[in-house]
Write a structure and sequence with these properties.
Layout lengths: L1 H44 L1 H6 L41 H12 L6 E8 L8 E3 L2 E5 L7 H6 L11 E6 L14 E3 L13 H14 L3 E4 L11 H15 L5 E8 L8 E8 L2 E4 L1 E6 L13 H18 L7 E4 L11 E8 L4 H20 L4
Parallel strand pairs: 1-8, 3-11, 4-6, 4-7, 7-12, 10-11
Antiparallel strand pairs: 1-5, 2-3, 8-9, 10-12
């Protein structure tokens, strides 16, 4: 009888333990569900707090602070290439990757010749801005960026005919291969190798335009075998193409800059876009006015309208990519046709990889502009 009573006690204890165990686990699940629901609700209700905690993108070894560009309160959320579904947009092209691998094998033998200082240009020299667009005006003529953005570019694009001419007055301008904070002795900043010089950047612009269904002419002729007279040489090329293809309405002369301080330090204009380093882009647009030596350029305003249109699109898609538009008493070959610009893609301190990525971005932004003016 005592044994039977003991068995009942043991069974009762076991039952209590089992119920407790099940209740504990049940409460854990309930707690987890409630906790998860709370986190989801918080993320929906407090998106700005999460964004504010994100770290600023790195700008290399930049030490000086620059003002943030003014933003239009009605500005929409940037549509990045990634958001557009182009998964391999930021992938390093195979030919450039092979160049990097080859240069890396002998990099330990390179001797430092000078320092490369990485910098992101924001409002440097800016005289006027509105929304995404910043302007550095070196002319006496005053212009309003806000007003320019209200004007329509003089464009009417057809997908059935070539609409864009890409060319290079200083074709042999080239880039670094390795991303580092110095340039090596004996490094040559010019090359006739079209897979390494400005033609390579032009190729990326053309690919993006063609991917979006636009026909484009890319002139790969080397115009600066003799540096003096290069613009006269390229001018003849542009005029010949315009006669052969009267449908061309946009001409872009793609260059790279060269920025060096008195102590030999080279400046590398760089922006970080979606976690990837790109060469900053500077659009140049000229002006004719009383008192400056520029002649035969009465249509300069059409170019400036197109310049602010293109920069606005670049900054909408790729915030931080551009430097202020350089609006100066210059002509170059921009008076040959309307919608004609000179574009500097980085400097001789940027890498070919960074410049090629910027070429893609220019092509994508230009294609988006052209879609708005397609017949």
């Amino acid at each position: 009888m005592k044994n039977g009573r003991n068995m009942k006690i043991i069974a009762a204890v076991f039952g209590v333990c089992l119920v407790g165990f099940l209740a504990f686990n049940f409460m854990k699940e309930i707690s987890f569900v409630f906790a998860k629901a709370a986190l989801v609700s918080a993320s929906r209700l407090l998106p700005s707090a999460a964004k504010d905690n994100e770290s600023e993108p790195s700008v290399g070894n930049q030490t000086e602070q620059t003002e943030q560009s003014q933003k239009d309160p009605s500005e929409t959320v940037p549509i990045t290439a990634s958001a557009a579904g182009d998964d391999d947009f930021y992938a390093v092209p195979d030919d450039i990757r092979k160049r990097i691998e080859g240069a890396s094998k002998t990099a330990d033998k390179d001797k430092k010749d000078g320092t490369i200082f990485e910098k992101q240009y924001k409002n440097d020299g800016m005289t006027d801005s509105f929304g995404n667009v910043r302007l550095k005006n070196l002319n006496k003529t005053k212009v309003s960026v806000e007003q320019l953005l209200k004007e329509k570019a003089d464009l009417s694009v057809s997908r059935n005919k070539p609409s864009v001419l890409i060319y290079h007055t200083h074709t042999t301008e080239a880039y670094q291969i390795l991303d580092r904070d110095f340039y090596a002795q004996g490094y040559i900043t010019r090359s006739k190798d079209t897979s390494f010089n400005m033609v390579r950047v032009g190729d990326e612009i053309v690919k993006e335009l063609e991917k979006n269904g636009f026909q484009c002419i890319h002139d790969t002729e080397i115009h600066d075998v003799k540096y003096s007279g290069a613009y006269d040489h390229s001018r003849k090329t542009v005029i010949e193409y315009l006669k052969k293809y009267p449908s061309v309405q946009i001409t872009l002369d793609i260059h790279r800059d060269a920025i060096e301080q008195s102590d030999g330090t080279k400046i590398k204009p760089t922006a970080t876009i979606n976690g990837h380093k790109a060469a900053q882009v500077m659009i140049i647009s000229g002006c004719q006015e009383r008192g400056n030596p520029v002649e035969d350029f009465s249509d300069w305003r059409y170019n400036l309208v197109f310049a602010v249109t293109l920069q606005n699109k670049l900054e909408t898609l790729f915030p931080g990519l551009t430097r202020p538009i350089f609006f100066a008493p210059r002509r170059y070959n921009m008076n040959v046709t309307r919608n004609s610009l000179l574009i500097e893609v980085g400097s001789d301190s940027n890498t070919l990889q960074e410049a090629a990525l910027s070429g893609k971005m220019i092509g994508k932004a230009l294609a988006e502009v052209m879609k708005e003016y397609t017949e």
